[in-house]
Write a structure and sequence with these properties.
It is a single chain. Strand 10, helix 17 and strand 11 form a beta-alpha-beta unit. The protein is globular. It is an alpha/beta fold and 646 residues long. The chain has a domain of 249 residues: Alpha-Beta Barrel (TIM Barrel), CATH 3.20.20. The strands form 2 sheets. Strands 2, 3, 4, 6, 7, 8, 9, 10 and 11 form a 9-stranded parallel β-sheet that branches. The chain has a two-stranded antiparallel sheet with strand order 1-5. The protein has 23 helices and 11 strands.
């Protein structure tokens, strides 16, 4: 074959390759990085806000006898996240080596023989990136003591004495680095569990709301006069006494903004905001984001009722790192006003007056699309019942002290039936919310289509128009002193690079800022791009450094004992389920890549880059071993999504 014919044939193959992989919804890569062999393809699912494992457990899905089970696909609900139990358990009182701490003495069911415990303990972690205990190196002491999987780095080999330092390796006092805020004490939690916490403000505001609602019920109610039993007469007498009290409240608070109160100023203008992210938006990840330039962070969504009941799993979500204290919001979800009021009062009452308080706002999630919450009337179901949503927000505002209340909404619940532009009018006139965040998709749409930024702009204009009209009205003049001067408006959806961020802010002057969600999971340095106003293509080495920082923060948060390392590995893999989706700029033929575009099978510019882009969860575990040591043979990890969240 002549050289020209050979070149023509090669060009034909390359042209066919381009045609095959440059279809709609496909990221355009340079041909030399496209892999045509192999059967694995990158699929697409629609879940940006996956259900938490807590919610999956509430769902109670079981096998029905005689029923054919559906094949697993899409989101993997009821994941098996069981962690193996230690067989050789050291007494918790002896973890730091003080043999006099245990009050149970010989009756204690745990191991008191430190030599025997150390002899039967699992081998120490051999980590490529951590030669010594990262917690001891950072803090000057390790809270896990003898249970630490890096024990030799802070224990004298001959005497088994645990080592501590007054300062860390960088001469910073201990605990000045890893301070975590918003801790609830055992006594406070017990008061909630045993129903001893006094929900004084909640009871008051709920009584006011009930009185105002009862007035409407009285107007529409038709009474029939007939002979009644004595018990009924007594009951009606008691009800009438209650109604008399309600009428007094109704006369007192009718036509007033009973929920209005002065709040701390909330500044979101042009701030770099990270969206609340269920499961993956944990404290170590948010700490990483603060390190990479984020201004405002939010907790994972906490459910109101478990907060009221004092459940550990929910109160743990309210914790934040001290680096977040200047801009941290706690997000809650609920279906009724009493839940919102009591959860908010519990948060404020237990955390606000502590030295380590880190709550700048409390955010109501009325945009969550999860079916379980929607069926309960929470999340985006509140958009279908604006009157209830308003009662929820007003009850929160009444009990929150000086902490501002904000709300996150969607364009609506159904495709083609957007309601946000009319809802914001009621939020202006009937609530005192400090900020509104709008996700540019409906609940029904989920994440299969691009966010509707044109409608987000329509809603922001509606907000400003109604805000102006309200401020000029008599009602607005009366409320002006106590409410925020301007309801801040934040757009959300499909922000994947600095160009998207600046475009939406500059195109819409009615909008204060833009919130970033998946884009910050796939490309954690997106806030650095926003500051630099340029695309940054991190090398595989730089991306490994990001994973190293995440692993260190995870171990400082969950611990370096056997259980803590397993937790770190599980959340590391959850993070990788998004992080692997980054397509290096250097292999792209067209950049930036849209969030809903998936690439063909590709290889990176080096082996590590290829590994970092793997869709195989076994490779994520392999990557975790660089930082957390070899995984146990029976370590269980099931990805949240079969197709890894494209």
């Amino acid at each position: 074959m002549s050289e020209s014919n050979k070149r023509t044939a090669e060009e034909s193959v390359e042209s066919n390759k381009r045609a095959d992989y440059h279809g709609k919804g496909i990221a355009q890569l340079k041909p030399e990085y496209i892999v045509t062999t192999g059967t694995h393809t990158r699929e697409q699912v629609d879940d940006e806000e996956p259900t938490t494992d807590r919610l999956d457990g509430m769902n109670g899905a079981t096998k029905g006898n005689g029923k054919k089970m559906k094949k697993k696909r899409g989101q993997n609900k009821n994941r098996d996240n069981r962690q193996l139990k230690e067989h050789n358990v050291l007494c918790p009182k002896l973890i730091q080596g003080d043999l006099t701490n245990c009050t149970f003495g010989d009756k204690c069911r745990f191991n008191h023989d430190i030599d025997a415990y150390l002899a039967g303990k699992r081998p120490e972690i051999e980590s490529t990136y951590f030669a010594e205990c990262p917690v001891y190196k950072s803090l000057g002491r390790c809270p896990m003591g003898y249970k630490c999987r890096f024990l030799s780095s802070h224990m004298e080999s001959g005497t088994h004495k645990l080592l501590t330092k007054e300062v860390n390796n960088d001469n910073v006092p201990i605990y000045d680095i890893n301070e975590e805020c918003n801790h609830i004490t055992y006594e406070q939690k017990t008061a909630l569990v045993k129903r001893r916490f006094a929900f004084t403000k909640s009871d008051t505001v709920l009584e006011i709301q009930d009185a105002l609602q009862q007035e409407y019920r009285d107007i529409t109610e038709t009474k029939e006069q007939k002979e009644k039993a004595p018990q009924v007469v007594q009951r009606e007498k008691e009800l009438q006494e209650k109604r008399n009290r309600q009428k007094e409240l109704q006369l007192q608070f009718k036509d007033t903004r009973y929920f209005a109160a002065e709040k701390k100023p909330l500044d979101l203008y042009r701030k770099k905001i990270l969206s609340p992210l269920t499961t993956v938006g944990n404290l170590p990840y948010r700490r990483l984001m603060k390190q990479m330039g984020c201004d405002i962070t939010y907790s994972e969504m906490a459910l109101a009722v478990p907060l009221i009941q004092g459940q550990n799993s929910e109160w743990a979500l309210a914790k934040c790192h001290k680096s977040e204290r200047d801009g941290f919001g706690v997000q809650i979800a609920c279906s009724k006003a009493w839940q919102a009021a009591k959860a908010t009062e519990a948060l404020v009452g237990n955390l606000l007056n502590t030295p380590t308080n880190g709550i700048n706002e409390i955010n109501l999630n009325s945009g969550c699309p999860i079916d379980l919450l929607y069926r309960q009337g929470a999340g985006s179901a509140l958009l279908d019942n604006p009157a209830r949503l308003i009662r929820v927000l007003n009850s929160m505002n009444y009990v929150s002290g000086d902490v501002p209340i904000t709300v996150k909404i969607r364009v609506g619940t159904k495709d083609g039936h957007n309601t946000a532009d009319t809802l914001v009018k009621r939020l202006v006139y009937e609530t005192d919310v400090a900020a509104i965040t709008l996700h540019g998709r409906s609940r029904q749409q989920r994440y299969t289509k691009l966010a509707d930024w044109d409608y987000i702009s329509t809603t922001s204009k509606s907000l400003r128009d109604n805000e102006l009209a309200f401020n000029e009205s008599e009602q607005g003049k009366d409320a002006r002193d106590k409410r925020q001067k301007r309801i801040q408006f934040v757009g959300n959806g499909d922000i994947n690079n600095y160009e998207d961020w600046y475009k939406h802010i500059e195109d819409d002057t009615n909008m204060d800022s833009v919130m970033v969600a998946r884009g910050a999971l796939i490309k954690p340095w997106i806030f650095e791009e926003i500051d630099a106003k340029q695309h940054l293509d991190k090398t595989s080495t730089e991306r490994l450094t990001i994973l190293q920082d995440y692993s260190r923060y995870a171990m400082e948060h969950w611990g370096t004992d056997e259980y803590g390392i397993a937790q770190c590995r599980r959340y590391f893999c959850d993070f990788m389920s998004f992080f692997h989706r980054y397509i290096p700029m250097g292999i792209c033929e067209r950049y930036p890549v849209k969030l809903n575009e998936r690439p063909p099978n590709w290889i990176g510019r080096d082996e590590t880059e290829t590994l970092l882009g793997s869709t195989n969860s076994a490779d994520w575990i392999k990557l975790s071993e660089l930082f957390l040591g070899p995984a146990e043979e029976n370590f269980i990890y099931t990805p949240k999504h079969k197709s890894n969240s494209y």
